[in-house]
Amino acid sequence: MSKLNKDILFLIFGELQDNSKSLFSSLMVNRFWCETLIPILWRNPWRYDINYNNKDYLFIIITSYLSDDIKEFLTRLGIQKPLVSYQSLLFDYLSFCRSVDITIINSIISTGSSSTNHRLFLQQEFYGVFMKKCPELKYLDMKSIEHQIFYFPEAKLRFESLYELKCDTSIDFSYFYGLARISQYIQKLTIVNNIDKEANLGIVKLIEVQKNLKYFEWKDDRYYYSSNVDPYKEILLALVKKADTINHLKMIFMHNDRTLQKVLPKLRKLKTLIIDDFSYCNEQQLKMCVYHDLEIFKIDYYDLKAASIIIENSGGRLKKFLLVSYELDFIDNFNDDTLVFTRKIYENCPSIEYLPLAFSPSERHFSEFENLLKVCKNLKSLLLIVCDMEKVITEEKNLLEIGDDLLKILVRSAPTSLREIIFLYDYKFSFEALEEFLEKWRDRPALSIFTIDPTYNADNYKNLIIKHKNNGVIKDFRCEFFINLINIMSVDS
Q1: Which domain of life is it from (predicted)?
Q2: Residue 59 CB burial class (10 angstroms; 0-12, 13-18, ≥19)
Q3: Which domain holds residue 26?
Q4: Is 109 part of any domain?
């Protein structure tokens, strides 16, 4: 491994970008690995799962770029951290940096001084260093910003190439006007709404000047708004003007909005639609939402009927269907809606790969589920939810019979692409049925199975699972808490 060339190492480290533990361990292999990895780590040094409030060395590295006069001034202020020179660093770290995260930089500054005045002074100096040393900026998280960094002499050159911006609505509108003058090619914009007032007109202006906005995310961070305040309307109307470029939309609203029902049908190029509530749209409005390029769709299961309508109008490219909520109690017309939904999936989504599916364990539902398995040949991950158990158990079968029937359907009709099954709620399988299922799965790729039922921790089940792990039938078999199983499937893409 130590003899791999630099290009190969770049590819490997690129695949490990979200695995901070592996990346930091790789730094210690040898000097060549370290020299290869440092530029990757410092491209966006704020993305890793580490405690930035307790990293003195980051404060020392950034202050090393300050002028001697400023360092001397910091010493007079009583800042006790060692202030080294830039020339003594092993690498020119900031020359690799392509991102600024205001919140994390402020937390690093707080390790140097707790004084408000000192902190504000250090912020100004640190931002100036980033403007001078970073060749370009691709990513900016400006939440908690307290300085107009867009007026630094070097700002125009740095921010012209800005690709991704994260911000919140509490930031003064003038900051966005400053950014709008120089950053007009932002492709990914994420906004956290954390104030109870009308739309931030600076954000509206920033959206309007963008020439290639592709990804837009809005997340409400407050639960109650004044009845006479609409924080969405101006933002959504600005967004409609970008309908030719927007292809990823994520909207998490805390209350219904009538403007969205007018906007959604106009965003016809969406590849990703993540939205938690369609209750403000009637059936006629939903039928106007035609997304022929839709690949990822996430919705609350309470709007299963709405999901069926949108899926019917999609272009057959849907790969991931995800859920905001898995609490399925008290859903009106659950049996009918789940039958229709299952049918719409296999009629309109032959390329589906990730699918949570809820249904009653009736013969009709099981029959439609088997039809889906036969048609959808690309399925990789299934999350299965059986509801209305008490009614079916009383009238037809017991819990084990239902589970055993389900295993028979899976082994008989599941596509060879299936790699993962998540069983949610009251699934139970007899030892004999599970053993038969695993024996018949032998000629397929290894399968991961997840459940919340602790029954499978019993010795006879554990021995069966170990046996089939050893012969390659099972890749993983885990009994997990409910929330852990949800997280396996619910990660946004």
Answers
A1: Eukaryota
A2: buried
A3: 1-41
A4: no
Residue in this structure with the two tokens 């799965």, named with its chain if needed: 441
- Ranges assigned E (strand) in 254-330: 272-275, 296-299, 320-323
> Which residues of the chain are modeled with pLDDT < 70?
1-7, 9-10, 12-20, 80-87, 223-229, 256, 301-302, 325-332, 388-397, 426, 488-493
How far is Cα of residue 313 from the mean position of the Cα atoms in its chain?
25
Most distant CA pair in the chain, distance: 84
Q: Which run of H or of E encompasses 101?
A: strand 99-101
For 380-445, the three-class secondary structure string (H helix, E strand, C coil) is CEEEEEECCHHHHHHHCCCHHHHHHHHHHHHHHHCCCCCCEEEEECCCCCCHHHHHHHHHHCCCCC
Per-residue pLDDT, 480: 82
Closest by Cα among 156, 158, 178, 157 to 167: 178
- Tell me if 18 is assigned to some domain: yes
Model pLDDT for residues 279-309, shown as the tens digit of each residue = 778 888 889 999 999 999 998 766 788 899 9
Please report whether residue 14 resides in a domain: yes
Kindly write down the DSSP assignment for every residue of 460-491, as one continuous string: HHHHHHHHHHHTTSEEEEEE--HHHHHHHHH-
Q: Is residue 472 part of a domain?
A: no
Residue whose token pair is 């791999």: 4
Paired residues of 358 in beta bridges: 385
